[in-house]
Amino acid sequence: MLSIPVKKTDSTKIFKNCEKYIKKNYDKATIEKVRPFLTEGDAFRDQVVATANVAFDGLNSAIQNTARYYRFIKIIENRIPIGSTELKFTWYDSVNRKKFPVLTYKLEKTCLLYNLGALYSRLGAETDLRGNDGHKIALNAFQNAMGCLNEVRKQGSEARLENNIDLTPECLSMNISILTAQCYCIMYDRMDKNTGNKVNLAKLAYTIHKNFDQAFCASISLKLAKDFQEDFKNMLKFQSLLHLALSSYWMSFPEREEGMKLGTGFGKGVARLRFANENITKAMQTKGLRGAIFETGRNALNMIVKEKELAEGENLSIYMDGIPEAKTLGFEELLMVQPKFPPPVDIESGVTGMEVLLCLVPKEVIALCAEYKEILHQMVSVETGRIGDVKREKDQALESMGLPQKINALSSETGLPEAIWKKIQQVQVAGGFFQLENSLTSLRQLCEGCQKSLTDLTGTLTREEDEDKSLRQAYGYQWGRATSQALNAGLRADIDKYHMKLNMAVQLDQGSLRTWQSNQESLEMLKKGKNELDTLIPANIEQYNPNAAAELLKQSLDALSNSEIAVNESLKVLIQEVEQDNIIEALLKLVEAKLPKESTFNAEISKFNPKKEEISVKITELRGSLQVVCEKNSEFERVKGNMNSNPQRVQILTQLEQAVKVYNDLASILSQGHQFYANLSTHLSVLQQKVADFIYSRNLEKNELITHISGRGGAQGGAPNPYGQFYPQGNPYGQFK
User: Fold this and answer.
1) Which of 283, 353, 411, 702 stands 20 to 30 A from 198 (CA)?
2) Is the dihedral of CA 542, 547, 551, 557 positive or negative?
3) Under the phi-then-psi rule, with left for phi > 0, alpha for psi from -120 to 50, and beta for the rest, what region is 252?
4) DSSP label at 9?
5) pTM of the full structure
6) Mean pLDDT, to the nearest integer, of 396-415?
7) Is there a contact between 209 and 247 (Cβ–Cβ < 8 Å)?
8) Which domains are delineated in the chain?
9) What are residue 91's DSSP bridge partners?
10) How far does Cα 613 stand from its chain's mean position?
């Protein structure tokens, strides 16, 4: 079994690198208060450094240590702006061993998520399958590893290192495919080959082949080919061919049994065995086979050859059934294994002692940060909308001209044109069909979490109102304070506002779900490998000689594609800059000086004007490229003459192009949905603090009033605080009132 190598990292002195920033903005007492907690973070990170060399029996502890340090980083990222400190982290690419500086908290967390996946993959690969619950432990470990890597893959480019191989979508997808294949290998290993259901064995083997084949295709892609050794790529190729052969081998048994009963169809089983023999022979020709892998292949070869010769003899002497071509044989893939984030890993809760950091950033600054981030995300949304508009113009124009299907369908290539395969491969690298499915599930869960938060906040205010009404009735005119409804109107208005935004998001999510459901058939095609798609697409009945107009049209389409890539890249950089922007230091000064927020916000937002202007220029260039395509298409239509294409070929290529478009549109919408829920969660956190402060202050006021009415002077008394769960040790924000 294969495991993913852990990313190595160097030790970092967190407090020492943050000390200058803290001294600049806070007094000595504050420095001494936060010193122990930040120094403890150094110890947490040292434990992460040690995971590169951890023994097998220390893997579970290493996983928990990595998760704890992840939580520590989550705590300090909203309290200490990394750009204002001397703090930086150093990581090494696990593939090419190159050293890279990491200058953002988000990227630090990405590397930690990757390492969680790598540690789980080791746990799965090194577990003895013959031990107690060995298969179950290894299977869960591989699924957990897939879940961690899938979380990394879902993150944007701002969470990746430039020129770093192991965090690229291509490498992540390759590793997820390997882990998926090994999950099915464990199921295959567990089944008894003599008594087990042969159809299930065939399905398992084919699914293993499919995932190893996807991993192999990724390993030889332009992005990864030079960074992985030939032995590794050959091993993936061997496993793919071996299990394709085994799938045909096992499927031959039920087909021959059916042929014996019906008197026809036995030849299909023989065809399966011939196909199995063809593929196991190719597998054994793979360079570099040795040891246990070679023995596995040789045993499979002997088993398949023996069964093939037996079946051929029976067919010749008894059944004399026709033997179909191998390409007419069908295969069925299993879809049981999905990435799941490991339940035992806690990356959400806090770390003991985190309360001391509350003194670094007052609640007013946290609220301003949320407001500023909302403005930035609205700015990004506007730019995304502008780019979306011009893309829709492009898609509509190309569709009206029948492009690019018209050119691809006339191609003299047999099978799937390379231009379309590249698009499908990009979809598969990004996670493909299953990524959309997981994103839809994730959106639903995020939505439910936000709905629960809003319901809880409404319930908290309602309970406080009911208590106030009860006390007002009990004490009559003596209950001389303002009603809760009068004072919490602003909070309820915020809750209603967020409910409205959430309901709008739910409508969009339902629209995405309908699009997903109505395009299932075409999206399913994006799961297929190139060989499978090649067999679906007929060649042109008549070949044509490409003329100058056709070549110029192709070139203009390539230029249009490059223009679209360029504008997408500019948007990606803008999003990256927005994610990294942190103005806590400026907001601290603003709050301290009691200045209006508008001037600071405007000054900070103006930093992004050059990138917005760059996007405008590239949008203009994209429209210009589209105009050139229209001109070249007119010329092509004028001179193309009687060139005809196979209608069935056009239909399938159009379906594939449409599937890619639907995928890209859905992926973009779902990504925006995840960003919306992330922003909403930030605002709800601020609102929760406001509600908690309101409840706390009302409770103090209530107790004082009850004490006064009861005539007990300054003694502590009154009803107990039913909202103490918000601040069991008192209000931590009290010093800022």
Assistant:
1) 283
2) negative
3) alpha
4) B
5) 0.75
6) 78
7) yes
8) 1-167+349-360 (1.25.40.280), 199-329 (no CATH)
9) 9, 100
10) 30
